[in-house]
Amino acid sequence: GNHFGLHEAGLWLDGASAMLGGQSHTENCWANGGRAVYDGVTETFAANLPFLVDAGDNPCFLPMEVEPSQGWFEDFNNENPMPPCAAPQCGLGGFDHESPDAHLIAEGQIEAGVYTDAVRWALNRYLYKKAYGLPLESNIMQDFFDTHLHSTVGAFYEMDSRLNALYNANAEDVAAMAAGLDSLAAGLDALAALDIQLLEASEENRPALLAVRSELLDDVTEWAGNAAALYKLVAEERAQLAEPLKTQNESINASFIYEQNEKDVNDILLSNLERGGTGLEAGELQTLESIAEQCPFSGGRAVFRARAFLAAESRAMSWYDDGTACSEAERTQPTRASQETKPASQIRLYPNPAKQQATILWSEPLQKQGAMELYDAFGRKQLTVALEKGLQEYRLLLHRLPAGLYFLRVSAGGQEESFKLIVKP
Measured between alpha carbons, how far is 292 from 61 in angstroms, rounded to an integer? Predict the structure, then answer.
């Protein structure tokens, strides 16, 4: 395979069966029309970091279609050929903790670039979780578990296990509450439909509709009360289970930022459960925001957990610019700067929400050229606009875009700003 250090390119395997791992033990054929595509990477960049394949006598090592057509793959004479891997021989029989790749993780022989520590820690946690309780056949895996039984890898595995047990302890009550909420939602919909009928009903039909509405309202009130009682019961049970877990989490000795982030997110989650799930406090929100803005490759899995926590709390999507968060300066020393420490934006976006067009206005003319990119809610680029030097206002046409949430990234003069933009139907 290949190593794109800045994650600026990847492969899209359309219906193909591919195995990711060391090329020392397999040679992969592309199957079922697999093709390689790219987004935003120049042919020059691809040519500097090509995929090395031995396509001489095995053309199946090349995909059916490549975009761009040149520069991605380089025919390389393999001095140690092995039988080509093709479907169905390429199929894996499931996770194997004694496989060569698992042993590479266990021995720390994973090349992960500048994020080596955080990535290796995440891989160790994955291997520990997947192999826990399985018979250990090799000294490599035995040493691995002996090492991490008392490390943060083992400590957070215990935390995750007990958190899962906490949520599953009252599964029946949760299922009953979910069913009650479904009934409540259906009842409210039926009430809304009856209200519309009442507005249009004649005088003679209205009393019968009012009687039906009264009965349905009683049912809805009862369902709401049952759901509230079940929620209170679940919240009380989880609050009792959360208290000792919080003490256990506090006892974990974190030495690195990705470990401390994991502790912080756990602590906030458990504190919220102790309070009955009533919501996050100001200090907790600030901590989650500071973690969410970090580079995931140095801040660890907790960065994504913090982002999910904030999204659930605010019930809104957020945009995190990992291109900036994972800049060279942040790779070795990730910071925890909160949003309040960012410089004030010199760019205005209005109106927002917008329908036909939106205007981007700078406080002064651009001193250098720049660029503007628009992404949809799934991170797919919708358009790119070149910004000329001296520009102070730009009108962005939106009439061809479907209604929904978009993210606008504006880069000019060494500064970059990101905006949420809502396009109305």
Answer: 40
Q: In whole angstroms, give the CA distance from residue 248 to residue 353.
A: 46
Query: Do 401 and 395 touch, CB atoms closer than 8 A?
Result: no
Side chain identity at residue 27, one-letter code = E
The pairing of strands 65-66 and 347-350 is unpaired
| pLDDT band per the 50, 70, 90 thresholds, residue 27 | low
Please tell me the number of Cα atoms within 13 Å of 127 on its side-chain side. Answer: 29
- Rounded Cα distance, 313 and 339, in Å: 17
Q: Are 53 and 61 in contact, with CB atoms under 8 Å apart?
A: yes
User: Can you tell me the distance from the alpha carbon of 13 to that of 287, in angstroms, rounded to the nearest whole number?
Assistant: 38
Residue 141 has pLDDT above 90, yes or no: yes
pTM of structure = 0.56
The pair of three-digit structure tokens given for residue 130, joined into one six-digit string:
């997947």
